[in-house]
Task: structure prediction
Amino acid sequence: MDKKGYTLIEILVGLTIVALIFAIGYVNFRDFSRRQALVGYARTIKGDLRVAQESALAGKKPADIFCDPPSVLNSYYFNVVSASNYQITASCSGGNVIVKDVTLPSDVAISISTNPVLFKILGEGTNVPSATPTTITLTQAGTGNTRVITITSGGEIK
Result:
């Protein structure tokens, strides 16, 4: 009698090949998604830096008792508080107002070469030295992936 079909060995070999392909694809996808998450955090920080810079350029005071008239807006700060936390603060003559407080995920660390970064009002520049731009480095634990954000003395954010 001639029966058609697959043997147990052929099925096991086929399943092993499929499992190996799935495992390799899963590892690559996981690394890709981690890299993309780090890129997303870098974009968020760049956006926050630009908001602080634009608010300072426009002289936009936050709605707070420390900045209400007759108080004057002096500047906006981007301050790295810890390896996983940064703040955007408005400095008014009446006191400082935290505009935004961000805590990064536990697997991402932030470091900065000049802390805090000061955006002066009405286009007066920053506190970044002209010889060496300030760098903000995001490092992802476990993977070693890094992203660097650069701020020049003229306020350009790259």
Notes: The chain has one helix and seven strands.
